[in-house]
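We now fix the convention by which a protein and its fold are recorded. The integers have meaning only within a learned vocabulary of local backbone shapes. A complete example follows; check for yourself that the lines match position by position.
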Amino acid sequence: MKNPGKIAIWAVIGIAVLVIGFMAFSPAEGTVENVDARRLADLVASGVRVIDVRTEGEYAAGHIAGAELVPIDRFAQAAATWDRTVPLAVYCATGQRSTTAVNHLSGQGFEKVYHFNAGLVAWSGTLERGATAAAPAPEPTASALPVVYEFFTDT
């Protein structure tokens, strides 16, 4: 066996690098809390701001009472204007899109985010139906590329 002391030192250094790397690239502990349907119902009753990141059609078909529609494709732009100290609860249909949203919020320094990670499919409460005002569509910028349609016919 080579030098066991040297191997032990390198092992300790390797573990330290992993721990420091994990701490540096992880969201701040406590910023995101996964919640179940019962906890989300309590949060809704207490007045926590609830964000639905599904599409307008999904929202109109049924959503949690009081939830604001902010489709995931407009989420980052809308969230940039929000107060980072106000607690938010975020959900989608199954938890996939809302995971993207809560990771974004955590990375942007939001202090408290509740994630209904099971999604609306696990909601046990009643749903409201109908559309409401969605987050505004992003304004086109001067650097936006034009859209070109090409039609071809073979006569």
Q: What stands out?
A: The longest helix spans residues 4-25.
